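During the no-cost extension, the postdoctoral fellow (Dr. R.K.) reprocessed legacy sequence entries with the updated structure-token encoder. One reprocessed record is reproduced below for audit purposes.
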Amino acid sequence: MDVLPRGACGRFDDDLRRLKRTGTVWTAGAHIITAVIGFGVLSLAWAFSQLGWLAAPIVIFLYSFLTYYTSSLLTACYRSGDPKTGRRNSTYMDAVRSNLGGVKANICGVIQFLYLFGVATGYTIAASISMMAIKRSNCFHHSGGENGCHISSNPYMILFGVVQVILSQIPDFSQLRWFSIVADVMSFTYSTVALGLGIYKVAGTSQFHFRGSLTGIRIGNVTPARKIWMCLQALGNIASAYCYSIILIDVQDTIRSPPPEAETMKKAIRVSVAVTTFFYMFHGCIGYAAFGDFAPRNLLTGFGFYNPFWLLDIANTAVVIHLLVAYQVYCHLLFALVEKFASEKFGASQFITKEIIVPIPGFTPYKHNIFRLVWRTIFVILATIISMLLQFVNVNDLVGILGAVGFWPFTVYFPIEVYIVQQKIPKWCARWVGLKILCGACLFISIAGASGSFAGFLHDLKGYKPFETRY
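Re-encoded structure tokens follow.
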């Protein structure tokens, strides 16, 4: 270990590699809410329309309880050994590697890379749709609804990508905490607008009529087979709304101690899960009550509402700002993973270690790592190009696939396996059996959700033309 300057130890945490962490319950909760309350909340009315008044609330409560439980297991694994003084696991992969070994850690890394790349792609597509919705809503307003207002999403994806290239150069995840607070404000802004418009639509009906049924969209409006696939896709969509465990260890690594980080993190998870579940339930119920079986896939961009157009513009602008930050909250995990691997394997290379010094008159010169600049820029460019190729995909289908694929390994399997090993739970004891049954049941649900979303993906492929917009 490198020798620290005299008097430096007091400024570092017990791992002697980072300055003292300053995160609190509120900053950790802000990071989690930024990642959780995303644009997926706007599709919950559609998910309710597939499952109905009976099943949809039950599914949301089950997902919320399961996520809280497994997240609590994962937070207990932040330190290996003693929860107060044990060695820190600074990333999700570190926790997997220290408990399950290198092979499973490598598998986790591959799944994590693919998932986060998919998130970056989905966020790029979703942001471009919101930007187009602003343009189209103004077009509808000025033309009186006579103009189809068909536009290309490619320029908006490129613009989003350019901004992400700039934001991706922020060196450290901990420096995103103020951005997360801004993103939280934005998410509450567009969620509140969508909620208010839904309430207004319900109140505008005769005798305050609530649409919808106990079992969701009726057979006849869709075929029985289509009904089954759409219900499965709704499971994937709701799963994606709770798929945030992948960032928990990284968020926990920003928290100051004492008290023990796990104690603070459990409070942050409790607050964030309660807030998000309330929002999800309220949004799904109001949206379904307003539109019934014909709920749009996105309340703000599906043009379930046309007026007031300026309010829709504000809401969609908030969506774009939120996605700008949420993109970084997720992708900084991948950035840190790749850069840590590169420094360990190729630490002697000047390309990995060399820094550019940019003089700024009147300020301290700005230092920037060359490898970080090149690799993060390439990542954003590739994600943007893939997004332009996949813009034919309905965002709900992509969200459902990501949710179903990401939920089981990151929210269920790895947290449970890591917890079993760290706590030395004996095989075939009641708790071990219960955790394994839970893991198997969630795998079955995730496969079902993924199959429904994949069926929608194949349906989207019909008439596919590269770089062509369907809006």
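The chain has a mean pLDDT of 78. Residues 79 and 355 are 32 Å apart (CA to CA). The remaining legacy entries will be reprocessed before the final report is submitted.
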